[in-house]
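**Entry details**
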Amino acid sequence: MRLRPEQLAGQLGKQLLPVYLLSGDELLIQQECADSIRQHCRQQGIHERDVLEAERGFDWNALLEAGQSMSLFADRKLIELRLGGARMDQKSSAALQQYLEHADGSNILLITCGRLDSRSLNAKWVKAIDNVGAVMQIWPVDRRQLGPWIQQRLKDNGMRADRDAAELLADRVEGNLLAADQEIQKLKVLLGEQTISLETVANAVASSARYDIFKLIDAALGGNAAYALQMYNGLVAEGSEEIPMLGAISRELRTLYNCAAAIGQGNGIDRVLDAARVWDKRKTLYKRCLDKHNLASLEALLQLAGRLDAALKGQSPENARLLFAELIAGLAGTPILPPGS
């Protein structure tokens, strides 16, 4: 079957198909659709995941073996086949079709790739997926639709915006949905969940030029603890809500932890960062941070983030400001408190 991104949630609610193909260049929507499939797999008790990168020289027998091998801990697993920009030739097409001939839903295959042209969409391997699973073409959001898309995105994050405010954001991001999502997360940190107007957005954009949670994170990743702590104090002084700020840092920590785990399994760091969707301009920061941290230290920071979350919500007597400062300094590689504090 053919699906649109907005139809995916409804389809997953009915049944989990044996195979999904996500095709397109809009990375944010593709990533979120893939995350929805992964989450639904976990809800169905599928916790094991095999990731196959179809780079040059990829052995397509690995796909067949992944489909046939049984887990020691579970009966089912999710197999992710990442084609990237690779073109399917006769051999790879035959291997994929062979896999699909035996696909009974025991394992779930998630295929992601760049945009497919009309010829590729009529290829045998795509038709084979169409017969037993779902093919989803993910198109960029054009400029005329971007304002309403931003309004809906704000609503999903507990905020509302009038048309002028949404159009101002649309002008600023110039059609880049990843940038649009980042701006929305910034507004949530700066303003909390509220209705925002054109003036509110303009003022928030101006103030975020000085203090910005995402700049704070980058400073910490780069090892500049003093500057990161200065920005933290500035954000708090401006009235920014600390729980959304912690959410942004925690997401970064989880990504770092997953990257460290993948590197520990023998994967090259550039390949790992690409798989984690780390932007090129941030890869240097990630490499620096991963060079200073290991799985144990990142796990300790995640545990610290859990303590901080409890303190911010009044569920712990610990000093939230002190814990927040320690989390930022620890991420930068210069912890304030002695180990075990």
Notes: The longest helix spans residues 242-264. Strands lie at 2-3, 19-24, 48-53, 77-84, 108-113, 134-138, 160-161, 195-196. The first strand starts at residue 2 and ends at 3.
